[in-house]
Amino acid sequence: MKRIIGLLLASTLLAGTASAMEPTELVGQQLSAEEFAALVEAAKAANPPKSGEKYVFGFANLARNAPFFLNTEDGILRNGEAAGVEILVTDNALDGSTALQNAESYIRRNVDYVIEFQTDANFAPTIMTKFNDAGIKVIAIDIPMPGATFFGANNPRSGFMGGAYLAQAAAAKWSAEDIANGYLVVGELPQSGAIPAMRTKGQIGGFLAENPDFPEDRIIRLDTKGTLEEAFRVMSDAIGRIPAGSPIMGLAINDQSIIGMLRAVNQAGRGEEALFVGMGADEIDTLVAEPNFVASVGYFPENYGNYIVPMALMELGGQELPPAVLVTHEMVTKANVCEFYTDKTCAGEAMDYTFPQEAFVTFLGGLSEDPELADYQTLIPNE
Questions:
Q1: Contact call for residues 297 and 275 (beta carbons, < 8 A)
Q2: Residues contacting residue 180 through CB under 8 Å, at least 6 positions apart
């Protein structure tokens, strides 16, 4: 990659013992062998490996059937190998009860640390209680686990970016009257709880920042369950509610949902009436190939391991991690994809996109006052 993601540390103070490296020094690079050796040495001095030889980490992946999950896994495995840490991978299969079984398997295997990527917010307290009772520290990816360090999406900002980009792309394609007569379709993921919901709320908020008078009854919310197959099914059902000729403007929790929705629109012969903006930018080939898939908000999961494995070693070494570490996002389009992925070719002209910062700050104020988010203020950025 030409660029690397940065991070927003949701903490004003990172306290801990002295070591070769601090969390604030992680800027997306994979550490050198010498840097990993220093982290491992400091960790062993504070918390020797339970096996007596080398550290064993569990990585419970959300699923293993889409690029986002596989890119995350590859990055964690790559960093584990570089650090001399064994990574035990399990598949949570997008299912809470499976995630619980995998967590119990890690406890039985007496792992030193767990990286948890699971989708069902209802299972998070039970899983974390078991890890806490076993004395196992946890980093949770994208869906928070009570007491674990959160690593992943800046949900409000990434959502707002995508929604605003879609609105501006729609304005470049259609008249204001056409947009007002169009439909905004949003693929949600209710099972994952209030935190990922900030992403889809942000998408709607970003779109409405550009179209404040857009009618509420023209916003269609679908539970795509974060999968291509379910997104295709529910979009196929919903498209009959959208009159022929009306613009179809689509957003969703992830790129897999966008692809399913887009396939349903194309199958119905209405692709020319549609614009979609994704979330994750992990389905790059589809983004490049599909003319109406105009952009996706980049998360760069291939870099996640560059942060997570060092952070786990730092915590084993006695350093206090911040409660939340949020990814810095970028808009990935056909025009700039080669700047992020050097094996891809940029095509077309870049749209003159402007992020509506003032409207975003107002949106954040509403989130901060939401009682459902009272316990998650560290996951809401300041600006």
A1: no
A2: 211, 213, 214, 215
pLDDT tops 90 at residue 147 = yes
Mean pLDDT value of segment 293-319: 97
CB burial of residue 314 (10 Å; 0-12, 13-18, 19+): buried
Identity of the residue numbered 18: A
Write down the mean pLDDT value for the chain. 93
In angstroms, rounded to a whole number, what is the distance separating the alpha carbons of residues 315 and 303?
A: 19
What sign results for the dihedral spanned by CA atoms 82, 86, 92, 96?
A: negative
Q: What is the token pair recorded at 96?
A: 């809470």
Structure tokens given for 232: 């295709």
Token pair belonging to 158: 């990434």
Mean pLDDT of 2-7: 46
All structural domains of the chain, each given as residue ranges with its CATH number in brackets, are 7-153+301-321 (3.40.50.2300), 155-298+330-379 (3.40.50.2300)
Which pLDDT band, with edges at 50, 70 and 90, does 104 fall under?
very high
Helices assigned H by DSSP within 122-277: 124-134, 155-173, 176-180, 194-210, 228-238, 255-267
**pLDDT of residue 13 exceeding 80:** no
Chain centroid offset of residue 6 CA: 14
In angstroms, how far is the first alpha carbon of the chain from the final one? 27
Other C-beta atoms lying within 10 Å of the C-beta of residue 44? 15
